[in-house]
Design a protein that fits this description.
By secondary structure, the protein is an all-beta fold. 0% of the residues lie in helices and 26% in strands. The chain has a six-stranded mixed sheet, with no helix packed on it. Strands 1, 2, 3 and 4 form a four-stranded mixed sheet that branches.
Length: 357
């Protein structure tokens, strides 16, 4: 049988006393095969208890021969995992920290070297540094504020901002780029818009309230605004020909004069649906003339015409007022003005008849 030679110092138990050692071992001072067993009976050799995968080994009680695997402290070569509290007497640095930070304490300084937040009290903290949610290029996470978010400087949002409560501004609200962004959309319009009596600007034009009156165009005689087919300007309401303007009122009180459109004729004339006063310059006539009424079916029920011999020569050159088609005037197809300064007022039923007032 061959044996391995041992060199150096071997520390043995007190049974191997040099005073009586006779060349043989008389007790199980060394047991087991150290190459194949755990050497449980061998003393002064460090042992590890609580073996755990990837656990970090620590010393127990300052005993050099007592080691333990910490199951709450593991490292797999790239990730260090700690279950429990971490206490540091100096700063802890990292590329970033994950979690909600609810367990962080002792944060008292903001800016360089002491974290980005400065605590005001148990419920408030501030920062003079920039905070980015997600990456610096493309933020991909949500910043949720359950209480009040206060911004005393400039607040820049490159994406969408969702606010489920009230948004209070103590400054101006500007888009990042002029004439690019909208306030609301067709799918998500605002419900109500409240403004004071200050001015709303539409380009260079303004809309404001002055003395409880809505004012547009700053008193301009050429600027106006449209409502339906109506155009409101400084001196009236304008509509294209053929458009009907209805004023629904059971009584009308006018505080001023009324002027009607006056059409002057000195020849045969087809009265239009937009005419009202028709003045005949009979003193310039050289022969009798005929004025033809429009088709009553194309007029409003009650529409009225006033026809007057303004020249006073109808007795010399009589003026015939004729109907169109089968329309009649008080049962007649035509009537004649043949007295000087004669006049007649007619209204229709909007169907086929005219009546003399």
């Amino acid at each position: 049988m061959a044996y391995n030679a041992v060199s150096g110092t071997i520390i043995t138990s007190q049974d191997l006393n040099a005073g009586w050692f006779d060349g043989s071992l008389t007790a199980n001072t060394v047991s087991g095969n150290l190459s194949t067993s755990d050497g449980a009976s061998v003393i002064n050799i460090p042992r590890v208890s609580n073996a755990t995968n990837n656990a970090v080994i620590t010393n127990v009680g300052g005993d050099a021969n007592s080691l333990v695997c910490e199951s709450n402290l593991t490292f797999d070569g790239s990730l260090l995992t700690i279950t429990g509290d971490v206490t540091a007497s100096v700063g802890i640095s990292a590329s970033y920290f994950m979690g909600d930070g609810s367990g962080l304490t002792g944060i008292s300084a903001g800016g360089s070297g002491g974290g980005i937040f400065t605590e005001v009290n148990g419920t408030k903290a501030y920062t003079t540094s920039s905070i980015q949610v997600g990456s610096s290029d493309t933020p991909a996470y949500t910043l949720s504020v359950a209480g009040t978010a206060m911004v005393s400087g400039t607040y820049i949002v490159t994406g969408n901002i969702h606010c489920t409560g009230a948004l209070h501004l103590d400054g101006n609200f500007f888009p990042a780029t002029a004439n690019v962004h909208d306030l609301g959309s067709a799918a998500k319009p605002w419900r109500n818009l409240y403004v004071s009596s200050s001015t709303i600007y539409f380009g260079t034009d303004t809309l404001s309230v002055s003395n409880d009156n809505l004012k547009f165009g700053s008193g301009s005689t050429v600027k106006g605004f449209d409502v339906g087919f109506m155009n409101f300007k400084n001196n009236g309401i304008f509509m294209d020909q053929g458009r009907l303007f209805k004023l629904r009122a059971y009584q009308i009180q006018m505080f001023g004069g009324i002027g009607y459109v006056r059409k002057v004729v000195a020849d045969d004339y087809l009265i239009r649906d937009v005419d009202y006063l028709v003045g005949i310059q009979s003193d310039t006539l050289t022969s009798s003339i005929t004025l033809t009424l429009p088709d009553a079916a194309g007029l409003l029920n009650g529409q009225t015409f006033v026809i007057k011999d303004e020249g006073g020569s109808a007795n010399t050159y009589p003026v015939t007022i004729a109907c169109t088609g089968s329309d009649i005037i008080d049962g007649q197809t035509s009537i004649v003005l043949e007295s000087p300064y004669a006049a007649i007022q007619l209204y229709c039923n909007g169907l086929n008849k005219y009546f003399i007032c």
